[in-house]
Model the fold of this input.
Amino acid sequence: MKVLRPTSRNEALDMLADDPSIRPIAGGTDLMVSWHHHDKTGWTLMDLSRVDDLNTMSMDDHALQLGALTSYWDVIASKDVTNAFPLLTVAARQVGAIQIQTRGTWAGNIANGSPAADGVPVMMAYNAIVHLQSRTESTDVPLDQYFTGYKQSVRKPDQLIVGITMPRTSHDHEWFHKVGARSAQAITKVGVAMVKNGSGWRVVANSVAPFVCRCKRLESALNDGQSFATPADVADILKHDIAPIDDIRSTARYRQTVLARLIHAHINE
Ligand SMILES: Cc1cc2nc3c(=O)[nH]c(=O)nc-3n(C[C@H](O)[C@H](O)[C@H](O)COP(=O)(O)OP(=O)(O)OC[C@H]3O[C@@H](n4cnc5c(N)ncnc54)[C@H](O)[C@@H]3O)c2cc1C
Done:
């Protein structure tokens, strides 16, 4: 196994262009977990940690920009970002423990493509744009159009996620809830982020489909002012938005029922 250590973005993009089979490594908190499951003969890793211009976070009146190396802790530690985008910090505090929050990156959470990712729902609810770059082109993709299947995305092998942008708008309402087997250090069985601003509701759920997804039918119903007397009424709409499965952590029925109950309880608070 070989490890490349670029010191600039262009050097990293050149390396990827020359060999798209190279695996970028940011915090390593996903890549190292699956380490023992792979035969790494022939692997080339590209350690991004020395690429300073990917390690940036900035916010102005219009938007928040996260670099590819922005960690959960960078967001938790920023009062300004937490005030403007509270759900980012709410979700970040529930990702693993502090060790993971200081190493794990928001971009890695997206790139890893897990349907259980906790950073993705809040970013998607905040209308995030993913910036992809290769040696020859730059592309911006709305996060809600980034995933194409289980662990599949529109990212081409020679592209890096170089940053994520979230527009600053005032939010009338924002909420994130994660259900796991215990209150910390647990992989999500069901999760939901809900944000309402001038353009309406965004409802994003994780662990209930092959990838983190918006619940667009439910969003439309909420935007139309529909009320839901019981959790079953929410579930009736949600069934068009989600496709949960049985796995070692939970059952499809549990995920569907709990998601509907959570949303029903929350919107009728
Ligand atoms: C103990 C533990 C607990 C955890 N708990 C949670 C949790 O509660 N919730 C949760 O969502 N996750 C959790 N995770 C998973 C992980 O911490 C997050 O998904 C994290 O955001 C991954 O970021 P990273 O920088 O460490 O990614 P890495 O491991 O470095 O990379 C992950 C994948 O993304 C690719 N990649 C990384 N950066 C880029 C880039 N810029 N461009 C293109 N590809 C890239 C890598 O090649 C790799 O395939 C946990 C992990 C551990 C070990």
Q: What stands out?
A: The chain has a mean pLDDT of 96.
